[in-house]
Design brief:
Number of helices: 8
Order of helices and strands: HHHEEEHHHHH
Number of strands: 3
Shape: globular
Strand order of the largest sheet: 1-2-3
Largest sheet: 3 strands, antiparallel
Distance between the termini: 26 Å
Helix content: 40-55%
Number of domains: 1
């Protein structure tokens, strides 16, 4: 990872095939908690939520096509769009809960342990790596920087712009692969 500014480095992220491999690995398990773990990892990967936000998520926070993050970092609320697959999984998983019940009844530490369990050791990833991965994939697929800022809950666009440097670095690496 290269230096970014004073004492800062570009965020590490997982490419899409690695995330898909992790999710496939969890899906193949036939253990009781595997279904929960799969939904937690998918939520991290497809929403950019922080582990603490996933841990606090309640059934009432699930809407048809969005999640409401209540009192995220900085005590701010925000809305995160959901794809239909994740929306359906969260709805089915929380079906028997009352509206004020937490969906996963899990701690941030437990979420970290789930990530450590399924991410290959050589990748040195954390739940926050999934957040970085979400941001990079959104930008690579053409998402507006301002929209990404809102989804991630950054108060400053400058914070979100760091991901542009990661995407630029990847573009340069792809360009360098061309045999001129």
């Amino acid at each position: 990872m290269r230096e970014y500014g004073i004492n800062k480095t570009l965020p590490k992220y997982l490419n899409y095939s690695v995330i898909s491999g992790i999710l496939d690995k969890v899906k193949k398990e036939r253990k009781k908690l595997s279904y929960r773990n799969y939904i937690i990892l998918m939520t991290l990967a497809r929403t950019g939520m922080r582990a603490s936000e996933v841990a606090k998520l309640k059934k009432q926070d699930i809407k048809d096509d969005a999640l409401i993050v209540r009192e995220g970092k900085g005590k701010k609320d925000r809305i995160i769009p959901l794809d239909s697959e994740l929306s359906n999984l969260l709805g089915l998983y929380s079906d028997r809960l009352s509206p004020k019940d937490k969906i996963f009844d899990i701690s941030t530490r437990q979420i970290r342990n789930i990530v450590y369990k399924y991410v290959p050791d050589e990748l040195d990833a954390s739940p926050h790596t999934f957040r970085h991965s979400f941001a990079v994939h959104c930008l690579k697929n053409g998402m507006n920087l301002r929209s990404l800022q809102k989804i991630l809950g950054h108060s400053s666009l400058t914070t979100t712009q760091i991901y542009l440097d990661v995407v630029s670095k990847d573009i340069k690496e792809d360009y360098d692969k061309i045999p001129w």
